[in-house]
Specification:
mainly alpha
Amino acid sequence: MAHPNPIPDRLKTARTKAGLTQRELGIRIGMEPSSASGRMNHYEKGRHIPDIDTLKRMADELGVPINYFFCETETTAELARLIANMTEEEQAELITNLKKNQS
């Protein structure tokens, strides 16, 4: 069952897609090797929620925008990831096209 808070599920999905273990991700964002796996497990299980600085380091390491972690569905999470990889010009064009389609 999905958590009411989307962060645990988004974190696990992004980490898995990146091909990293919980320990590897924890170490890469600056956690002590002895506690990295346990701390990451707590985040993915929803027992603890990372602070914003930790979440930002995770996002940077996993190549996703920080708002990815707050998306409630896989579809909106994927959209957030795709939009973040666009240039500002491409984003502006997308916004223009979306606004045209709402009229």
